[in-house]
Amino acid sequence: MDGMPATSDPVLAPAGGTAIEDRPIEESYDQSPWATIVWDDPVNLMSYVAHVFAIYFHYSKSKAHRLMMAVHTEGKAIVATGSREEMERDVTAMHEYGLWATLDRADAG
Description:
This protein is of the alpha+beta class and 109 residues long. It has a single domain (30-108), classed as CATH 3.30.1390.10. The protein has helices at 46-57, 61-74, 84-96; strands at 11-12, 18-19, 34-39, 76-82, 100-105. Strands 4-3-5 form a three-stranded antiparallel beta sheet. Helix 1 packs across helix 2 (61-74). It is elongated and about 70 Å long. It starts with 10 loop residues before the first strand and ends with a strand.
């Protein structure tokens, strides 16, 4: 079998040769969603935290207030989910606003 690609499941090419089955590149990457988590801190005012959520994430006043209250009463809140790269960008932005934020897998529970 010289010159034939090593594959456990060869696919016959139209000319009768052997081809390697194409697989989408995305399958090789973990596609599970990530979350930006904002934590309660003793420094920032609740109104400021809600303001940051509204201006950075473009949330309505109501949603920004609801998330801020979750941070305040539960100690943390998931404020956004998406790709790891997007959530890393959001966490960095939250740090620039002076908020405590981390990222984790959205399904980490």
